[in-house]
Amino acid sequence: MESKSIESASRFDSLKWLAVFVLVAVGVVGNQVYSAESVLYRVLALVALALVAGFVALATDRGRRFAVLLKEARVEIRKVVWPTRPELVQTTIIVVVFVLVVALLLWGMDSLISWLVAGFIG
Length: 122
Description:
Elements lengths: L1 H32 L5 H20 L2 H18 L6 H37 L1
Helix pairs in contact: 1-2
Main location: membrane
Protein name: Protein translocase subunit SecE
Function: Essential subunit of the Sec protein translocation channel SecYEG. Clamps together the 2 halves of SecY. May contact the channel plug during translocation.
């Protein structure tokens, strides 16, 4: 009995994803067909279609799992300890200095190799 409910849910999920695809296609084609209309109207129509497509997508199994993932990611982001301004400035200076040193080393090696090759070739 459980397999029937899973099978029917997946069948309906396929129909829901088809509806999402159709809504996106209608938005793309409609934007082309009504390209002479005001941008405001086209944007409002695209936003409305996107909201409807989003709600339909969230009604699927994958959509619900994606919503749970977003909620969990939001919880994890709240746990992040952001650096203070002095830490950020210090780290940025260290990175910039390191990049400059590596760039100078690479420039020096490139110049040396090109000088050696030019001397060898003549």
